[in-house]
Specification:
alpha+beta; 7 helices; 21% strand; 2 domains; two-stranded antiparallel sheet; Trna Endonuclease, Chain: A, domain 1; six-stranded mixed β-sheet
Length: 229
């Protein structure tokens, strides 16, 4: 750990000297329930849980050490939860509804349970609905080292095909009665993306978020995404 950061953390720990330590476990995180009084701690606890999952017991079995916390799956989940909880905390709940629903396929005819079970689940990352404008924005967060990719046939960078198909499936299968839009949200890699498309009559946006920026820049950038809702 960076020595300067370690020194700051040790100072912060002094403020919690009266709080008893607890033994962390998977079940402890799973048993936690949020309500009106503690929901503002949700983001911090989510981050704490991911840090906990990034720890392993060393060979002596006593201490713990980081086992390369920067893992794609863990960071992708943290990125998703960060954006979701940001909107839950900072958007006016009287105007916006923020959640992460599971969408149903718009099937043209009834199918058996067996056939239905073969279809992939459509679990959204973040959905923001404006109750005034009756507009829905489905945000799919993607955490990748490279935002765009090249193919065997061209060096031109492109959006990943699977990502675009996925957000289109979400938008086209949403049963929201108002206007539905989709967004792919990546962390910034080398450059910012602000691409806009209309595909099949649906607005699709490609955006990036610079996680290395100052907090006020991240804050304003995230709020700007929902201005289109």
């Amino acid at each position: 750990m960076d020595p300067e950061l370690k020194k700051k953390l040790q100072k912060q720990r002094m403020h919690f000297s009266s709080i008893q330590d607890i033994q962390l476990s998977h079940s402890l995180f799973n048993s936690h329930r949020y309500n009106r009084n503690n929901q503002h701690y949700r983001m911090l606890i989510n981050i704490s849980e991911l840090i906990y999952h990034g720890l392993i017991t060393n060979e002596k079995g006593n201490d713990t050490s980081f086992s390369n916390f920067i893992r794609d799956r863990q960071m992708a989940k943290l990125y998703e939860k960060f954006v979701l909880n940001f909107y839950r905390k900072h958007l006016n709940s009287q105007i916006y509804h923020v959640y992460s629903p599971k969408l149903q396929w718009n099937l043209n005819e009834e199918v058996s349970d067996g056939d239905l079970s073969l279809l992939p689940e459509m679990r959204t990352d973040i959905v923001v609905e404006n109750k005034v404008t009756e507009t829905q924005l489905i945000i799919d967060t993607k955490y990748y080292a490279e935002t765009l990719v090249t193919s065997n046939w061209t060096e031109t960078e492109k959006i990943r095909t699977g990502h675009l198909y996925q957000i289109l499936a979400y938008v086209n299968n949403s049963n929201y009665p108002g206007n539905t839009k989709g967004m792919l949200l990546y962390p910034s890699v080398n450059k910012e993306l602000n691409a806009n498309y209309s595909i099949g009559g649906k607005a699709i946006h490609i955006r990036t978020l610079n996680l290395d920026a100052e907090w006020h820049v991240i804050f304003e950038r995230l709020l700007s995404f929902v201005e289109m809702v």
